[in-house]
Prior knowledge:
- This protein has ten helices and 14 strands.
- With 310 residues, it is an alpha+beta fold.
Amino acid sequence: MIPEFPQFKKLELSDKKDIEKFTSKFPPYSDFNFVSMWSWDIKGEMRLSVLNNNLVVRFTDYLTGNPFYSFLGDNKVNETAEQLLELSKNEGLKAELKLIPEDSVRSVDKKKFKVKEDRDNFDYMYATDSLQKMEGGKFEIKRKHCRFFKKKFPHRIKILDLNNPLTKNEIVNLFNDWVADKKGEKSTDYYRNEFTALSRFLNSSESINFFVVGIYFGDKLIAVSATENTHNAHNLGHFQKTRSVLFKGINDHLIHELATILNKKNITHMNHEQDLGILGLRDSKKSYMPSHFLKKFSLSANQPSDIICN
Length: 310
Protein backbone atom coordinates (compact mmCIF):
# COMPACT_ATOMS: atom_id res chain seq x y z
CA MET A 1 0.00 0.00 0.00
CA ILE A 2 1.22 3.50 -0.84
CA PRO A 3 1.52 5.53 2.39
CA GLU A 4 -0.08 8.89 3.13
CA PHE A 5 2.09 12.00 2.91
CA PRO A 6 4.56 12.84 4.41
CA GLN A 7 5.52 9.16 4.44
CA PHE A 8 7.03 7.71 1.27
CA LYS A 9 7.91 4.21 0.06
CA LYS A 10 10.22 2.90 -2.63
CA LEU A 11 8.66 1.60 -5.85
CA GLU A 12 7.99 -2.16 -5.86
CA LEU A 13 6.31 -4.57 -8.29
CA SER A 14 3.49 -4.99 -5.78
CA ASP A 15 2.55 -1.29 -6.25
CA LYS A 16 1.11 -1.84 -9.74
CA LYS A 17 -2.56 -2.08 -8.73
CA ASP A 18 -2.37 0.83 -6.30
CA ILE A 19 -0.74 3.08 -8.91
CA GLU A 20 -3.28 2.11 -11.54
CA LYS A 21 -6.13 3.16 -9.24
CA PHE A 22 -4.88 6.70 -9.85
CA THR A 23 -3.72 6.46 -13.46
CA SER A 24 -6.91 4.80 -14.71
CA LYS A 25 -8.82 8.04 -14.08
CA PHE A 26 -6.69 10.04 -16.52
CA PRO A 27 -5.17 9.79 -20.00
CA PRO A 28 -2.10 7.49 -20.13
CA TYR A 29 0.66 9.95 -19.21
CA SER A 30 3.85 7.98 -19.78
CA ASP A 31 5.72 9.18 -16.69
CA PHE A 32 3.07 7.83 -14.32
CA ASN A 33 2.64 4.53 -16.11
CA PHE A 34 3.67 1.72 -13.76
CA VAL A 35 5.72 -0.22 -16.32
CA SER A 36 7.59 2.90 -17.38
CA MET A 37 8.28 3.83 -13.77
CA TRP A 38 9.43 0.33 -12.90
CA SER A 39 11.61 -0.09 -15.99
CA TRP A 40 13.49 3.18 -15.58
CA ASP A 41 13.88 3.12 -11.79
CA ILE A 42 17.23 1.52 -12.43
CA LYS A 43 18.87 2.83 -9.25
CA GLY A 44 15.88 2.23 -6.97
CA GLU A 45 15.55 5.94 -6.19
CA MET A 46 11.85 6.49 -6.98
CA ARG A 47 9.55 7.15 -4.02
CA LEU A 48 5.73 7.14 -3.75
CA SER A 49 3.19 8.81 -1.50
CA VAL A 50 -0.47 9.88 -1.49
CA LEU A 51 -1.38 13.50 -0.74
CA ASN A 52 -4.98 14.77 -0.83
CA ASN A 53 -5.87 11.61 -2.76
CA ASN A 54 -3.30 12.48 -5.45
CA LEU A 55 -0.42 10.20 -6.42
CA VAL A 56 2.91 11.84 -5.51
CA VAL A 57 6.16 10.63 -7.08
CA ARG A 58 9.72 11.62 -6.30
CA PHE A 59 11.39 11.24 -9.70
CA THR A 60 14.95 11.71 -10.88
CA ASP A 61 15.43 13.74 -14.05
CA TYR A 62 15.81 11.53 -17.14
CA LEU A 63 18.86 13.49 -18.35
CA THR A 64 20.50 15.04 -15.27
CA GLY A 65 19.57 12.54 -12.57
CA ASN A 66 18.51 15.36 -10.22
CA PRO A 67 15.51 14.51 -7.97
CA PHE A 68 12.22 16.42 -8.08
CA TYR A 69 8.59 15.97 -7.07
CA SER A 70 5.50 15.57 -9.23
CA PHE A 71 1.90 14.52 -8.75
CA LEU A 72 -1.05 13.12 -10.68
CA GLY A 73 -4.55 14.04 -9.56
CA ASP A 74 -7.06 16.87 -9.45
CA ASN A 75 -7.90 17.03 -5.73
CA LYS A 76 -6.91 20.12 -3.71
CA VAL A 77 -4.19 20.84 -6.24
CA ASN A 78 -3.19 24.22 -4.73
CA GLU A 79 -2.67 22.72 -1.27
CA THR A 80 -0.85 19.74 -2.81
CA ALA A 81 1.49 21.98 -4.81
CA GLU A 82 2.24 24.16 -1.77
CA GLN A 83 3.17 21.18 0.39
CA LEU A 84 5.38 19.60 -2.29
CA LEU A 85 7.17 22.88 -3.00
CA GLU A 86 7.78 23.32 0.72
CA LEU A 87 9.14 19.76 0.91
CA SER A 88 11.41 20.45 -2.06
CA LYS A 89 12.88 23.52 -0.32
CA ASN A 90 13.34 21.61 2.94
CA GLU A 91 15.29 18.93 1.09
CA GLY A 92 17.50 21.46 -0.68
CA LEU A 93 15.95 20.76 -4.07
CA LYS A 94 14.97 23.34 -6.65
CA ALA A 95 11.59 24.79 -5.62
CA GLU A 96 9.87 23.51 -8.73
CA LEU A 97 7.51 20.64 -9.49
CA LYS A 98 7.93 18.98 -12.89
CA LEU A 99 6.08 16.59 -15.21
CA ILE A 100 2.76 17.83 -13.85
CA PRO A 101 0.01 16.52 -16.20
CA GLU A 102 -2.36 19.00 -17.80
CA ASP A 103 -5.25 17.37 -15.94
CA SER A 104 -3.55 18.30 -12.67
CA VAL A 105 -2.90 21.98 -13.42
CA ARG A 106 -6.30 23.02 -14.78
CA SER A 107 -7.53 24.27 -11.42
CA VAL A 108 -4.21 25.65 -10.16
CA ASP A 109 -4.42 29.22 -8.87
CA LYS A 110 -2.34 31.20 -11.40
CA LYS A 111 -2.00 34.04 -8.88
CA LYS A 112 -0.16 31.74 -6.50
CA PHE A 113 1.79 29.62 -8.96
CA LYS A 114 3.81 30.03 -12.12
CA VAL A 115 2.73 27.31 -14.55
CA LYS A 116 4.95 26.72 -17.58
CA GLU A 117 4.52 24.31 -20.49
CA ASP A 118 7.23 21.66 -20.60
CA ARG A 119 7.31 20.99 -24.35
CA ASP A 120 10.27 18.62 -24.10
CA ASN A 121 8.14 16.23 -22.07
CA PHE A 122 4.88 16.29 -24.02
CA ASP A 123 3.75 12.75 -24.86
CA TYR A 124 3.21 12.15 -28.58
CA MET A 125 -0.18 10.59 -29.30
CA TYR A 126 -0.91 8.93 -32.66
CA ALA A 127 -4.18 7.66 -34.09
CA THR A 128 -3.72 4.01 -35.11
CA ASP A 129 -6.15 4.51 -38.00
CA SER A 130 -3.95 7.28 -39.42
CA LEU A 131 -0.73 5.26 -39.13
CA GLN A 132 -2.38 2.20 -40.62
CA LYS A 133 -3.59 4.09 -43.71
CA MET A 134 -0.64 6.52 -44.05
CA GLU A 135 -2.62 8.56 -46.56
CA GLY A 136 -1.73 11.80 -48.33
CA GLY A 137 1.41 13.69 -49.13
CA LYS A 138 2.51 13.97 -45.50
CA PHE A 139 3.11 10.20 -45.44
CA GLU A 140 4.56 9.84 -48.95
CA ILE A 141 8.14 9.22 -47.81
CA LYS A 142 7.06 6.71 -45.18
CA ARG A 143 4.97 4.78 -47.73
CA LYS A 144 8.05 4.71 -49.96
CA HIS A 145 10.19 3.38 -47.11
CA CYS A 146 7.64 0.66 -46.34
CA ARG A 147 7.47 -0.41 -50.00
CA PHE A 148 11.27 -0.53 -50.24
CA PHE A 149 11.60 -2.66 -47.10
CA LYS A 150 8.89 -5.13 -48.16
CA LYS A 151 10.39 -5.51 -51.64
CA LYS A 152 14.04 -5.72 -50.57
CA PHE A 153 13.81 -7.86 -47.43
CA PRO A 154 11.51 -10.91 -47.28
CA HIS A 155 10.34 -11.05 -43.70
CA ARG A 156 7.60 -12.11 -41.34
CA ILE A 157 5.70 -10.24 -38.64
CA LYS A 158 5.06 -12.00 -35.35
CA ILE A 159 3.29 -11.11 -32.11
CA LEU A 160 5.74 -12.15 -29.38
CA ASP A 161 5.10 -13.78 -26.02
CA LEU A 162 7.24 -12.32 -23.24
CA ASN A 163 6.48 -15.34 -21.05
CA ASN A 164 8.68 -17.37 -23.42
CA PRO A 165 12.34 -17.30 -22.23
CA LEU A 166 13.53 -17.81 -25.83
CA THR A 167 11.70 -14.65 -26.88
CA LYS A 168 13.39 -12.68 -24.11
CA ASN A 169 16.76 -13.97 -25.30
CA GLU A 170 15.98 -12.93 -28.86
CA ILE A 171 15.15 -9.40 -27.71
CA VAL A 172 18.36 -9.18 -25.68
CA ASN A 173 20.35 -10.38 -28.70
CA LEU A 174 18.64 -7.75 -30.85
CA PHE A 175 19.58 -5.10 -28.29
CA ASN A 176 23.22 -6.20 -28.46
CA ASP A 177 23.13 -6.08 -32.27
CA TRP A 178 21.58 -2.61 -32.08
CA VAL A 179 24.41 -1.42 -29.82
CA ALA A 180 26.99 -2.88 -32.23
CA ASP A 181 25.30 -1.08 -35.14
CA LYS A 182 25.66 2.22 -33.26
CA LYS A 183 29.46 1.82 -33.13
CA GLY A 184 29.95 3.91 -30.01
CA GLU A 185 27.53 6.66 -31.00
CA LYS A 186 26.42 6.90 -27.37
CA SER A 187 28.33 6.56 -24.10
CA THR A 188 28.85 3.23 -22.36
CA ASP A 189 26.68 4.45 -19.46
CA TYR A 190 23.84 5.25 -21.88
CA TYR A 191 23.80 1.71 -23.26
CA ARG A 192 24.19 0.20 -19.80
CA ASN A 193 21.22 2.16 -18.48
CA GLU A 194 19.11 1.22 -21.52
CA PHE A 195 19.94 -2.45 -21.03
CA THR A 196 19.13 -2.31 -17.32
CA ALA A 197 15.76 -0.70 -18.06
CA LEU A 198 15.02 -3.25 -20.79
CA SER A 199 15.91 -6.12 -18.45
CA ARG A 200 13.58 -4.76 -15.76
CA PHE A 201 10.85 -4.46 -18.40
CA LEU A 202 11.32 -8.03 -19.61
CA ASN A 203 11.24 -9.40 -16.08
CA SER A 204 8.36 -7.35 -14.67
CA SER A 205 4.94 -8.60 -13.60
CA GLU A 206 3.19 -11.28 -15.67
CA SER A 207 -0.10 -9.47 -15.02
CA ILE A 208 0.91 -6.59 -17.32
CA ASN A 209 -0.93 -6.47 -20.65
CA PHE A 210 2.16 -6.51 -22.86
CA PHE A 211 1.81 -6.24 -26.61
CA VAL A 212 5.06 -6.95 -28.45
CA VAL A 213 5.51 -7.09 -32.23
CA GLY A 214 8.66 -8.39 -33.91
CA ILE A 215 10.01 -8.53 -37.45
CA TYR A 216 12.11 -11.52 -38.52
CA PHE A 217 14.52 -11.77 -41.45
CA GLY A 218 14.96 -15.48 -41.81
CA ASP A 219 15.23 -16.77 -38.26
CA LYS A 220 16.77 -13.54 -36.96
CA LEU A 221 14.79 -10.96 -34.98
CA ILE A 222 15.70 -7.61 -36.56
CA ALA A 223 13.09 -5.30 -35.04
CA VAL A 224 10.86 -5.20 -31.99
CA SER A 225 8.28 -2.81 -30.57
CA ALA A 226 7.60 -3.64 -26.92
CA THR A 227 4.40 -1.92 -25.82
CA GLU A 228 1.56 -2.21 -23.34
CA ASN A 229 -2.17 -1.96 -23.92
CA THR A 230 -3.46 0.34 -21.19
CA HIS A 231 -6.92 1.73 -20.40
CA ASN A 232 -9.36 3.60 -22.65
CA ALA A 233 -8.25 1.79 -25.85
CA HIS A 234 -4.71 3.19 -25.65
CA ASN A 235 -1.32 1.62 -26.23
CA LEU A 236 1.89 2.86 -24.64
CA GLY A 237 5.26 2.19 -26.26
CA HIS A 238 8.16 1.27 -23.98
CA PHE A 239 11.05 -0.01 -26.10
CA GLN A 240 11.63 -0.04 -29.84
CA LYS A 241 14.83 -1.42 -31.33
CA THR A 242 15.57 -2.06 -35.01
CA ARG A 243 18.54 -2.96 -37.22
CA SER A 244 17.88 0.20 -39.24
CA VAL A 245 21.52 0.50 -40.34
CA LEU A 246 21.23 -2.75 -42.30
CA PHE A 247 17.53 -2.74 -43.19
CA LYS A 248 16.42 0.57 -44.69
CA GLY A 249 12.77 1.40 -44.11
CA ILE A 250 12.36 -0.96 -41.17
CA ASN A 251 11.38 1.74 -38.65
CA ASP A 252 8.47 3.00 -40.74
CA HIS A 253 7.36 -0.52 -41.59
CA LEU A 254 7.40 -1.56 -37.92
CA ILE A 255 5.28 1.44 -36.88
CA HIS A 256 2.85 0.78 -39.73
CA GLU A 257 2.47 -2.90 -38.84
CA LEU A 258 2.06 -2.19 -35.13
CA ALA A 259 -0.63 0.43 -35.82
CA THR A 260 -2.42 -1.93 -38.21
CA ILE A 261 -2.55 -4.76 -35.69
CA LEU A 262 -3.61 -2.46 -32.85
CA ASN A 263 -6.32 -0.79 -34.91
CA LYS A 264 -7.82 -4.18 -35.71
CA LYS A 265 -7.91 -4.81 -31.96
CA ASN A 266 -9.87 -1.55 -31.46
CA ILE A 267 -6.90 0.26 -29.91
CA THR A 268 -7.43 3.82 -31.10
CA HIS A 269 -4.27 5.63 -29.99
CA MET A 270 -0.59 4.98 -29.40
CA ASN A 271 1.53 6.95 -26.91
CA HIS A 272 5.17 7.14 -28.00
CA GLU A 273 6.33 9.19 -25.02
CA GLN A 274 8.35 12.41 -25.05
CA ASP A 275 11.33 13.64 -27.08
CA LEU A 276 13.23 15.17 -24.10
CA GLY A 277 14.17 18.13 -26.29
CA ILE A 278 16.48 15.98 -28.44
CA LEU A 279 16.10 17.56 -31.88
CA GLY A 280 16.63 14.41 -33.97
CA LEU A 281 14.15 12.51 -31.83
CA ARG A 282 11.67 15.38 -32.05
CA ASP A 283 11.89 15.46 -35.85
CA SER A 284 11.37 11.70 -36.00
CA LYS A 285 8.32 11.74 -33.71
CA LYS A 286 6.77 14.71 -35.51
CA SER A 287 7.17 12.95 -38.87
CA TYR A 288 4.52 10.38 -37.85
CA MET A 289 1.95 13.19 -37.54
CA PRO A 290 0.71 13.06 -33.93
CA SER A 291 -3.02 13.51 -33.48
CA HIS A 292 -2.44 15.40 -30.22
CA PHE A 293 -0.15 15.67 -27.20
CA LEU A 294 -0.51 14.82 -23.55
CA LYS A 295 0.86 18.03 -22.15
CA LYS A 296 2.94 18.40 -19.00
CA PHE A 297 3.99 21.47 -17.03
CA SER A 298 6.43 22.74 -14.47
CA LEU A 299 5.06 24.56 -11.45
CA SER A 300 6.69 26.98 -9.01
CA ALA A 301 5.50 29.63 -6.57
CA ASN A 302 4.91 33.12 -7.93
CA GLN A 303 7.29 35.65 -6.42
CA PRO A 304 5.76 38.86 -5.01
CA SER A 305 6.30 41.88 -7.24
CA ASP A 306 9.00 44.30 -6.25
CA ILE A 307 7.63 47.33 -4.49
CA ILE A 308 8.85 50.54 -6.08
CA CYS A 309 9.21 53.39 -3.64
CA ASN A 310 9.06 57.02 -4.82
